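Known limitations

Files may contain more than one protein. Parsers should not assume a single record per file. Below, a two-record file is shown to illustrate correct handling: read the sequence, read the token line, then continue until end of file.
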Amino acid sequence: QGMIAPRVIIDAKSGVSGAGRSLKLDSHFSEVDESVSAYALDGHRHQPEIAQELAVAWNRGGGKGMPAVTFVPHLIPMTRGILATCYADLAGEWSVEQVRDVYRRFYAQEPFVRVVDAPPGTKQVWGSNYCYLYPVVDKRANRLVVISVIDNLVKGASGQAVENMNLLFGLPEQMGLEALPIYP
């Protein structure tokens, strides 16, 4: 939509399950508990696909080339879930209502994406295939800020695989994935 300038910063908080199953000192409970730490500062394995998909959207919206993406993940003391705070300077003046309208229209046909009216927490999607998005405008900095939450053990991995399989075999996208979140 030509909404943002070509720089995006993503600050993501991930539960320990996002670090994988291999034994590593920095993912042991005694190391993670009561601590938050950044990791993969020299390049996270998901950064290229984030940049790729942002470039698709960027070029579809009239931009040229690929936006610069900074992605900094943090390990936090919880088992599952990812909360990402994404920042991009706005290109021009946008109200929060205009931004949310663009988001709601873009995701209108996506059964597992919800544009919500308050900042979401990871517990709201725990055990589900949903992604909650909360876009807001920081008027002081003329910046778009988008909060997203997923359960990385469902939406981030297995749920995504089931969704893709359903689409591949011509089944309803939601088949087997419509369980309500566990919370509250």
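...continuing to the second record:
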Amino acid sequence: ATSSRAVIRGGGVRAEETVLITGIGGGVATFALQIARHVGARVLATSSSDHKLAKARTLGAFGVANYRDTNWHTVVRTMADGKGPDVVVDSGGGETFAKAIEILRPGGRLVTYGATAGAAKLEVRRIFFKQLDVLGSTMGTPSEFVAMLKLFSEGGLRPAIDRTFELHESADAHRRLEDGAQFGKIVLRIH
């Protein structure tokens, strides 16, 4: 529901737009990539893991950039026709959030649903001079949840499942999450 709300309601993503999904690999980001592709957007993704970037391509990402590269934002802008993305869906906060504001094209939209990288230091003038829309988003309403379920059940989308753990392996599942090694959702199986 967080992904659907961020892409559809918050980001207002439309066909032919370029969308950047930062921090690809987590469940919300992988859903966001799939939903944006489903509505016909060109999707770009960032991660610190080349393995996760390769997996993002298999889910339909048009282009990818490793944010450990100090010029990742230039690479993204170039992949977005040199003008920057129309929409950024960001989970990181911190420096990534500030760079997202910098690379968004004029009139662009930024949706944030997390701050794993901490607080952002940003130049506020970029927001109003570029006439950007910045929206915080999380979870969703019951009707948005139903719409998301319909999107997956009738739209042919399937969640990216990283790994399934037995319930007694929940500590291992938590360690995998803490390590940031997953690509997609982690499932606990209850017998």
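Parsers that stop after the first record will miss the second one. For reference, the second record is described as follows. The chain has a mean pLDDT of 91.
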